[in-house]
Hints:
With 383 residues, this protein is of the alpha/beta class.
Amino acid sequence: MSxxxxxxxxxxxxxxxxxxxxxxxxxxVALVPKVIEKLRRTGVEIVVESGAGIGAxxxxxxxxxxxxxxxxxxxxxxxxxVAPPTAEETARLGSGSTLIGFxxxxxxxxxxxxxxxxxxAGFAMEAVPRISRAQSMDALSSQAxxxxxKAVLLAADxxxxxxxxxxxxxxxxxxxxxxxxxxxxxxxxxxxxxxRLGARTTGYDVRPEVADQVRSLGAQWLDLGIDAAGEGGYxxxxxxxERAEQLKRLEEAITGFDVVITTALVPGRKAPxxxxxxxxxxxxxxxxxxDLAGEAGGNCELTEPGEVVERYDVTxxxxxxxxxxxxxxxxxxxxxxxxxxxxxxxxENGAVVPDWSDExxxxxxxxxxxxxxGATEATKGES
Length: 383
């Protein structure tokens, strides 16, 4: 290989850095040893910051055994993270490098601006299109599964009643009733988990097309007669009239349940209000509301994001970043998502050469660097 060929974009296998997450309560790591072993077969070098897996109970020795080396991840061609980078972390990224992770492009535009100014190509995991071909890269869904599962366990912990029906010598205890508002991935997992624990489950969503999915889990469907199906699998924002009617009907329905779990979110906007204070007041003492939309303001009027409060003898919990509470499996699932996206932009030599005609890459990329553009053009010229 000549000196000129050595400098050709795409000629050298990429190095991939895995830094330690430093956000409060964040225990996940972007790549795990099992996934690193697979990535190493593409030719890339993996550099893991010392202690990167400590929150997920993965020691450095497990990473090195998988073929990674411990070192400075910020000097790599590609850096993979979980949480959006801080200003300090962005400053450590090299111009022309690539960052993959949750970047919050809709709610934290300053992060995207900083990456663009730094000359970094940023790929946001939450921007991966929800199409069949990209299911293996859908980190929102993989992490939402964890949230839905954990939410039910929290509800069971706070509830003053059994979830399953119990027949004892002292008599029979009726099963708890659980209502899940918003039946996307998290909601469906919540319904399935509550059902496994023995509760009588009911699901509600403004997208009536998901009713069959709810029923397939053995749950009942709460039909309020409102249709707000939107694009990309998300619900559209309700009109003022629809919102008022929804709140009125939900207020009447919620009082009959022991547990209410809310998961409704509209990307880039404040979470829709579904549970009023009056609805909570009407619930039986000892009941529980678990609000998974706290980071976007909450679905419940009484929600205090990140807190567990008691109102009208009803517990209202709004846990933040539930996947971080189950870091082992959350990290494993997320690492597979990251790996699938990364492999999509690697050429046969293990170099990062994104094909901007690919819908997945074009949609998930929120900033492009001159280096990534140049690599693509060089590859086109060689073909």
